[in-house]
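Two proteins follow. First one:
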Amino acid sequence: MTDPILLIIIVLVVAFSHIMAALPFFRKVSRQTLPRSIDYCCLAFLLYYDVGLLYELCGIQSSSPYFTLFSHAHLLTQCKAVGLLLVAPWILRFGASLVNPATQQVQVLRNSSLLPARKFEFYLICILIIIASVAFGGFFLLSKFPMWLVRTTVTERLGTALILLYIPLGILAFYLTQTNSHSKRGSVMLLCLLIAAMFAAYPIGERTNLLLPLVICLLFRRQLRLSHLFAMLVICFFAAAIILPIIKWQYAGRKVPVANLLSETIFIDLARAPVLTDVLEHSDSIGTKILPYTGAGYVYSLFFYIPRAWAPFKGYSSAVYYTSYSVHTAPEQTTWGFAIGCLEEIVLNFGFFSVFPILLFYGVFFGMCDRLAARSASFLAPASLGAVWVVGQHLPAVLLIFGTMTGVIWLCRRRYVDTSVPEVAVL
């Protein structure tokens, strides 16, 4: 076990590095300018790692049977983890600056407008999607089946077609950035799309999916302010804790105090350092020890949108391989997975020393996402929140949510927006 004084020093050093990396985010928001994807990404390191480390520093014990506390890991593993956490956001920033210098960032939120000749068609499609989403999600909501059973059933039955449940979220993200959504009728339609996206997310059985429509509306409806950001984080944190017994089968039939739910939410969602140390202890310096071959998880991500019947060789995600290894089940029989982020996924696929160059490519990708968002504010939500998800979720989860969202937005812009007309600034 790490000496308490040494643990305090580690937490302070890591937190200082992450605060400095995330400082441009807070500076831009306070100046009423738009943060870039890389700014959201650096903020995510504070949320996913530092909150949990601080909580552990306070002496709070985790009830997880799979992971030990960061302070209980081997000294060499702790050094590796601290090294990764210290430099990761800075490597990502450097990679993003290579393709998108700070001088090219977007300053204010902008909106485009729907083509007048195709408004009726767009709103008709929205109404049909709203009806279908509420009917489908409402069926499972009113049924007596627990949510974790619904999630397993829907996932197995739908397969690749599960992507359809993410279409309302993409429509919401697109319509949110149209000037039409700011009228009274437009606001009503936006509210209906918000409700539809939440109903569609219910059978998926993930708290983040249920809260994501609300997060998108709060972040990208108007110019972001620090007070709104902190209020949103607090609201989402308490909401995630309260609905935890509905999502997790471990809490079925139990009356858990709210304080315990809040504590468990921190360890489940915001304490990734123990996961990182566990991954490092079961990985090689170069190559993979757990996956069938080096890069197997990224091969799965490459063929993510292709049905398994067409690409049976694609295997499974990094999270599934890691989970099956940890709980001693076959990957094909593993229907759930531990939450791992980009650091853990790279280590599992390529080994410890591969993290540094691969993170550079991640940063370059974030810079490319910013350039896409600079062309149209419609892509701000997937570019910004996708960067947050990359830090805390494995690549297939990011593709499922934000890859699908980007595709829906692109199709909607092609069909319903005159891209030759400049977007209008939103105050």
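Second one, unrelated to the first:
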Amino acid sequence: MAGLTLFEPEAETSTAGGNGVSRATKVYGVHAYHTKVPVEGIEPFILQHTAPGDTVVDPFCGSGMTGLAAVGLGRRPLLSDLSPAAVHIATNYVTPCNPVAYAVAVERVLTALDGVPDELYATPCHQCGQAATTAYVVWSDIRRCPACAQEMRVWDQRETGLRVLTCPSCAMAFRKGSASVTGEIAVSVNVDCRNCGRLHREPTDEDVAKAHNERAAIAEWYPRVPFGPDRAMWRSGHRELGIGEVGDFYSARNLRALACLWAAIQAEPDARLRSALTFTFTAIANRASRRYQWNAKRPTNVLGGTLYVSSLRYEFNVFGLWRRKVAAVRRLFEQTAGFSAESQVTEASATKLPYESNTVDYCFTDPPFGGNIVYSDCSLLWEAWLGHLTDPAAEAVISHTGKGLDEYAELMTASFREIHRVLKPGVAATVVFQNTDVAVWDALLTSTVEAGFAMESVEVLHKRQPSFKGVKAQEEGERVAASDVVLTLRRAERRVARAPGIGVEPIWNAVSNELSRNDVSKRQRSSGHLFAVAVAAAIEAGLAATETTFAARRLGSTRTARSAMVGGI
């Protein structure tokens, strides 16, 4: 096998010729998805393993970044996913759309709204008295002290941190989670005035009245998909906040705005433009919800990989979000207008791919990471608006409400067998994976062998910007794998057993070498990144992933790193 490689981030503008893996590109951020490998991180692998005109398959396509990389390099992507949301997002990423026609369609939508934006968000400027627009409102939980039953605004304790609250009445300190939610209240309003610019004010009676627009008065359709304890991501906090269906993730005002916007979009007669407009809508569907977290310095967006609703949250003007997203989507269509490679995006299980055997030139895929993310729940808001939900029974995940490790392993084995079937003899498959559970790692590796693949190389792809969970890993020692391990497999004609290991010393050597580099960043010293390095070294040496463990504490020295990353030393 080839030696272990640690990809180093290069310039953020790097393209097919480099190893840059920034997630800060404009194309990457047009539409969110739960797990995304940047296009710049995929392109080098496609260039290495394919020629122009070749087919590239991704059976877990997610948002379609593999497809975007492939069409940009003149390859033909074959994308599929179990998730209707993924298929919708990937299709719009890889299918060209005339940017001028898109802009005209946007104007048709705005015309059809016929005064709704002003009805919902117009407000007088408190400084000059002229007409202004509500940019956003900040809402706070009202919680009850578990000792004296005094109600309090969480907002009033934002300066001292929100994990532990102190009752203003009895002075008792308690965990926020132990105090029940009794309601919510508007605590801050930001308005945009043409004369005065962006201004902040305390909420007025008019602000509160508009925000509490009656849901019963919404004549347009909106999703009524139930959300309850049968969902893996449901928490008792959702019940306290009155969230029993998808519509409850939105304020009444924003739900009406979205319903009106959705109705105008669905009236678009041209199918491609209607899909592009729907893509723009789903790109703001989470930001327009109650899931957009307040932050003292800047908006922190929604917490990916969960359906968490923060105690302090934004209610953003839906049409402000829409205008900004329209500009981003139009730039995407301008950049992809010249793509000529034909793309195919299909809703299908990876266990039954809709492609002929021995016909595909290469596979690049980013399969589900086991128990870390329940994709059907993460996509719930998108798919509820689309009117088409993922079947959780078919998902390759590990969940406390459903599948265990054995079921996950069976689905992954079936998926790799399908990848093996559709690939031409002897060609490669690249698999991006991360998990802190070494049992999941061994299940994945066993699945590749059972399917008939031989390991060719192992690399560590360190994303330039960590996800929210990656930040939590660095700051709080949370058990999160901050870097991806990249496995390059080769289709074998017969089953190839993994080579026997030669001891655990190669694991420590890889971690030690990473720590001893002069140019190593703080992020590359994180336990999450070093764990990925350790797992990659174990695989490279033919060892079981269970030879490594994950340290939930910060690694302050190479001695700590050695004991944390290498079992038994």
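SUMMARY FIELD: The first helix runs from residue 39 to 49. Confidence is low (pLDDT under 50) at residues 1-24, 465-480, 551-569.
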